[in-house]
């Protein structure tokens, strides 16, 4: 009897830095009622950019190749925005506020609750420069075809520094995957960048998140959902650099082997 090929349940995500993950884990214990709640372990905390679902080893190969191209295009796009910012800085000393030129901040600034599933999450606020745009459009997130939301490279650069990365990257990634037939459709209309802190929660209200929790993103990852008994873990299959600095640190193309699965 022919053995069915192994399936991998995968998705793309941003992962918070270790210290931020620890803070989020502690925050969940602070705001979530202990009874009946399932708090997300610190090592499982993530921000989903594109959900794919069950795939074969060959499809993991295709996903990896597609994501690598997205990373390459994003780095090229980022170089253009930085050049525009540097030119503006020379002509207007007020154009830059001291933020590092290679900083891609992800800011968790609010807590939210979804009754279905009892999900408590920490989320990102829509940057000011993206408000009133009617959400994320296909062209706005595609560096190859231009933008509707961002009129020029400098505006995009400022938006990225305000925290627009999750929307920008999710748009680029989902449209690239859809174009390759790797996902059925693009689901950005109701996209809410967030990190799930707990499930199965019953709560009437949540406190305000005082100081934002922030990390600098240097890569996005392809994660596999692995269930062992009642335990769910997310194992990285590959990582894709977002910055030239991260690419240099990776010592190559920023792509890690997928643990022998592809």
Key terms:
262 residues, alpha+beta, Cyclic Phosphodiesterase, Chain: A, four-stranded antiparallel sheet, 5 helices, 31% helix
Would you kindly provide a written description of the structure presented here, covering whatever features stand out?
Helices cover 31% and strands 24% of the residues. With 262 residues, the chain is an alpha+beta fold. The chain has one domain: Cyclic Phosphodiesterase, Chain: A (Alpha-Beta Complex), CATH 3.90.1140.10. The protein has a four-stranded antiparallel sheet. It has a four-stranded antiparallel sheet with strand order 2-7-6-5, covered by helices on one side. A two-stranded antiparallel sheet has the order 4-8. A hairpin with a 4-residue loop joins strand 5 and strand 6 (119-123). Helix 2 (57-91) packs across helix 3 (153-162) and helix 2 (57-91) packs across helix 4.
In short:
By secondary structure, the protein is of the alpha+beta class.
**Cα gyration radius (Å):** 19 Å
- The succession of helices and strands, N to C, reads EHEEHEEEHHEEEEH
Summarize model confidence as the mean pLDDT. 81
- Determine the number of helices (DSSP H or I, runs of at least 4 residues): 5
Tally of separate domains: 1
| CATH evolutionary superfamily | Cyclic phosphodiesterase
Give the class from helix and strand content and strand pairing: alpha+beta
Main sheet properties: 4 strands, antiparallel
CATH level-two architecture: Alpha-Beta Complex
Spatially, the strands of the biggest sheet line up as 3-1-9-10
Return the CATH topology: Cyclic Phosphodiesterase, Chain: A
The low-pLDDT segments are 93-99, 133-149, 256-262
Overall shape: it is: globular
The percent range for helix content is 25-40%
Distance between the termini: 23 Å
β-sheet strand percentage: 15-25%
């Amino acid at each position: 009897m022919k053995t069915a090929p192994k399936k991998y349940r995968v998705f793309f995500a941003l992962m918070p830095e270790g210290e931020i993950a620890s803070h989020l884990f502690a925050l969940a214990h602070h705001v979530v009622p202990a009874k009946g709640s399932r708090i997300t372990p610190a090592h499982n905390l993530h921000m989903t950019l594109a959900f794919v679902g069950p795939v074969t080893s060959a499809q993991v190969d295709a996903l990896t190749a597609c994501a690598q191209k997205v990373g390459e295009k994003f780095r090229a796009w980022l170089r253009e925005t930085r050049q525009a910012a540097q030119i503006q800085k020379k002509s207007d000393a007020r154009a830059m506020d001291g933020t590092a030129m290679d900083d891609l901040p992800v800011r968790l600034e609010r807590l939210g609750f979804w009754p279905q599933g009892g999900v408590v999450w920490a989320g990102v606020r829509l940057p000011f420069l993206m408000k009133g745009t009617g959400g994320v459009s296909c062209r706005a997130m595609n560096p190859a075809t231009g933008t509707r939301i961002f009129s020029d490279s400098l505006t995009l650069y400022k938006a990225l520094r305000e925290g627009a990365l999750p929307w920008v990257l999710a748009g680029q990634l989902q449209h690239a995957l859809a174009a390759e037939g790797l996902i059925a459709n693009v689901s950005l209309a109701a996209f809410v960048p967030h990190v799930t802190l707990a499930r199965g929660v019953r709560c009437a209200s949540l406190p305000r998140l005082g100081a934002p929790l922030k990390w600098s993103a240097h890569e996005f990852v392809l994660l596999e959902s692995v269930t062992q008994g009642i335990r769910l873990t997310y194992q990285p299959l590959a990582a894709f650099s977002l910055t030239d600095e991260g690419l240099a640190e990776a010592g190559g193309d920023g792509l890690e082997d997928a643990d022998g699965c592809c």
